[in-house]
TrEMBL record:
GO molecular function, one term: UDP-glucose 4-epimerase activity
Name this protein carries in UniProt: UDP-glucose 4-epimerase
Organism: Nocardioides perillae
Range of residues in the leader sequence: none
Names of required cofactors: NAD(+)
Amino acid sequence: MSWLVTGGAGYIGSHVVRALREAEMEVVVLDDLSTGFEQFLPPGVAFEHGSVLDAKLVDHTLHEHDVDGVIHVAGFKYAGVSVERPLHTYEQNVSAMVTLLKCMEAVGADKLVFSSSAATFGTPDVDLVTEETPTMPESPYGETKLIGEWMLRAAGAATGLKHTSLRYFNVVGSGTDDLFDASPHNLFPLVFDMLLRGDTPRINGDDYPTPDGTCVRDYIHVADLAQAHVAAAQRLASGESVERVYNLGSGGGTSVRQIMDTVREVTGIDFEPTIAPRRAGDPARIVASGELAARDLGWEMRHSLRDMVESAWRARQAAGAAYPAR
C-alpha cells in the first residue's frame, strides 16, 4: 500500500514527500511540473508525469502503485492571479478534484488529506481565526478550495471516504537546502530576488493598528506544514477519528516589518524598505489558532522566524544562478 502525493514535485509537495519517506511510508508522486521540479524528488520515489485532470493517468497511477490514500497538494494556488484566470483556477482546483475522487472511488482508495487554504476565510473580522470562523472567500482561488472541502464532505457521506482538510496561510522556509520556493508571488523569494538585483523591497502601509504599524500574518515553516500532512495521513491510516478541517496557525503572527528586519540580519544586506500606500483590502491582522491541530496532529511551530528566513536564504543561495524564474 502506498500514498499518492499530487503536486509532489512542488515546493510544498516535495517537503511532504520527504516527510513521508522519513516516516517510512511508501509514496508515489503525480505532478505535471507546471510549477514543480523533478529534481526535488528523492531517489527511488515513483513518479508519474502528468495532470490530475487526466483520468486515465490518475487511474493508472492508483492501480499501478497500489495506492490506498492520497495527499492532494496539486492545484493553482495564486489568489491574485485567480481573479484574472477564474476558469483556469476552477478547472485546476475543482474539475481536477472531481477526477481524483471518481478514480479513488473506482479503485477503493478511501483516505484523502486535502491541502486547503486559509483563503477560504476571506477577510475575517476576528482577532484569532478558528475552525468555526465563517468562510467567506474573496477570490476564485479561495472559492475553489472551499468547494474542494465541500466535495470531500459530500463524498464522505456518500461513499465513506475518510478525509480531512488542512487550512494554512503563508508557507516559508526550507527543510533542506536543495528544496526552494521559486514562486514569483510569494514574499520570501520576491524579497530575496529584489535584494540580489540591488532593488529595495517595499512595505505596503505602515500605519495599521498593529504594534509596529505593518500588517500581521501567520507564517509557518514548510517542514512543519509537511509534518502536519503526514500526521493527518497516519491518523487516517490508523482509523483514528479526525476533524473535517484543521487550521495550521501560529496563534500570534508576524509583522511584515519583523520579516524585513530578520531578512536584513540574516542576509547581511543592509537595506531600509520603502513605504508604499496600503493595498486595498489588506486587513491589519489575520492570525489563526492551531489548537485543534495540536490536539489531534501534534501540530506545533517548531521553527522560529529566524529559522524560516535562514533556511529559505540558504536554499536560495544553493540554487545560485540556476534558480528558475516562474
